[in-house]
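Q: Could you write out the predicted structure for this multi-component system? I'm mainly interested in how the pieces pack against one another.
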Amino acid sequence: MKQFDPSVFDFDNPSALFRFEDWLKGLIGGRLFYDPYFDTRGGFRGNEVVLDFGCGGGVSTRCIAAKLTRGGRVTGVDISSYFTAKAQKRLEGFSNARVLRGEITNLALPQQSFDLISIIHVIHDIVKEKRAGTVRALAGVLRPQGRLWIWEPIRQSHGMPAEEIRRVMAEAGLREVSAETEGSSYKGIFEKESRTHSAATVWTRYGEDARGVRRLASPRLGCAICCC
Ligand SMILES: C[S@@+](CC[C@H](N)C(=O)[O-])C[C@H]1O[C@@H](n2cnc3c(N)ncnc32)[C@H](O)[C@@H]1O
């Protein structure tokens, strides 16, 4: 089967179908699509600082803003001039929401400044070589023990493998807390470790003894920050 190739998309000039989908989501997407999804993640307390990464036309950002009723704020980030303009318009009237256009790797958002990052159908749309760096940058702006909710299609014809999602998250110090893989989509909750290390650093420290029990192999190979 033909592999999905995200490099064919021009998000600044989306197709008529993509524009129609955004219009339709604006009409009914909140009630049918985003609100039920956020509710199944556990919802919002109302005071969180949230990043809606790849916010598109801002329908999800608007749903989040409406739920942050206790002082919370949401920032929508997207690379598309077309979709960020739509999102700005949809969020007029929400003083707790803003939209930024650009790559997360270049936006210079303060490190560890978000409680929660929501990603809905975005990482698969980024070319493969840039996915790990993007997720590392996202992990950087998430506070320790902050959470990341991700929903991605995983079909070969349009999506990315769930294993790749897990790998880029683990490499960025994000631990999978829960996951559902239903047919063509993966929905996961990740948590940022209090201290981040590369998976390779941690694993090289362990070996198995004769009974197969994992033990510290060599403290000298360990992380220089702490004694984990
Ligand atoms: C399929 S749309 C999903 C939009 C939105 N999350 C939703 O649920 O409708 C994918 C979005 O990801 C955005 N995108 C693609 N690459 C991106 C990147 N590197 N950084 C931020 N956004 C990106 C696109 O501009 C587009 O708006």
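A: Regarding packing and overall arrangement: Residues 200-228 form one domain.
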